[in-house]
Amino acid sequence: MSILAAAAFLVATVLPAQAVTLLRDPDIEHALKQLAKPVLTAAGLSSARTRILVVDDRTLNAFVIDANHIFIHSGLISRLQTAEELQAVIAHEAAHIANGHIARRVLNARTAKTAAGIGLALAAAVAASGGSSKAAAALGIGISSSAGRVFMGHTRAEESAADQSSVRYMARGNVDPHGAVRVMELFSGQDLVSAARQDPYARTHPMSRTRLRHVKALADAYGGKINPDPAAAYWFSRVKGKLTAFQRAPKWTRQRAGESAAEDIRLMRLAVAYHRDSNTSKAVATMKSLLALKPKDPYYHELYGQILLESRQMKAALTAYKNAVNLASRDALILGSYGHALIVTGNAKAALPVLEKARARDGQDARVLRDLAQTYATLKNPGMASLVTAERYALQGRMKDAGIHAKRAAGLLPRGSTGWQRAQDVLSAAETASKKK
């Protein structure tokens, strides 16, 4: 799935209820996983189960809503300068998970009337991670500003504990903990700014000069002599390079492509810039140079497929996506992109097993469910089309619509079949949601 194939969802924030957008890109998520691995391992968390996801928001923030997901705003990633700084952000949010702060908050929210909608919002935050970049619809889940603050805000005691734990995780993972100091310095002075002008991170993570001094002391105590990791620097450059290539002006990207940590990243940034400038010939030529340099990199093949598909070079796009799948057959986002390309080119029969495999790997990708529903409808299987549509609406929190489609699916699918049972599950969830209103 391309970085611009994003979806809107509602999540508890310090602002009134609003739609925010996830940027799902296999390359970026893979790179973030590499960066996160040492600090997550040090925190006792599984790097395979804890996903680092990017929120399409130019403000500076990072947060957790459950034990398996860490969200980082694209604006924060763009402002950070080193791998250690990004790893510090991940380590800090991991500390909130490892220290049980989120588990206690979720437990309290379940019994709080003011946070009645938060359970659905938590599911939607990850579930609605697919969709169209051109028309990503917000979910119908409202969360009050006060409930958001209760759920997302950390106490000063929690922040102090997370600071100490995160610095320890970084040192244990052989990551320079002074990266945490530089992140804190980025937010220095936020406690003196009015709440309306503060960065969201400062509003959910209480800031103070005393806290900054404490983090400096911790970094000095734990740090010692830790040399920068070239691999981490590479993955950081790749994350930031691709993210900014899609979000900043193409001219800005071309001027700074030479600052990349490696030649392949420089070429990737240039290819994206040319593509966004509608200079297809240069974009394709640059991608060919990139793939000659990195022929076995599935994420560069996936990007090539995106560029070709969006340039209406359908046959070549399918080949590129197929190459990506051959190199990363278990990556759900790559499978989803290939399945989408097959549908666009009119090959629903071939798309079905690819999309079902993507769904099995990541059942929370609403774009895959949308494409699956379209595929089943094309193949004249209305029962499964209605079922998958119902499941997509349920993941997005649109329980009334989910119930309508689940009821239709139950009437079309063989009674007692697996699909019929899935429809019953959605119906039950829709009925429960209706009773709580």
List keywords for this structure.
single chain; mainly alpha; Serine Threonine Protein Phosphatase 5, Tetratricopeptide repeat; 5-stranded mixed beta sheet; 22 helices; globular; disordered N terminus
Task: Please explain how this structure is put together.
The protein has 437 residues and is mainly alpha-helical. 64% of the residues lie in helices and 5% in strands. It has two domains: 7-230, no CATH class; 250-436, Tetratricopeptide repeat domain (Serine Threonine Protein Phosphatase 5, Tetratricopeptide repeat), CATH 1.25.40. It contains 22 helices and five strands. A five-stranded mixed sheet has the order 1-2-3-5-4, with helices on both faces. A hairpin with an 8-residue loop joins β1 (7-10) and β2 (19-23). α1 packs across α7 (156-172), α7 (156-172) packs parallel to α10 and α15 (298-310) runs parallel beside α17 (332-344). It is globular. The model is unreliable at 3-19 and 109-151 (pLDDT under 50). Residues 30-218 form the Peptidase M48 domain. This is M48 family metalloprotease.
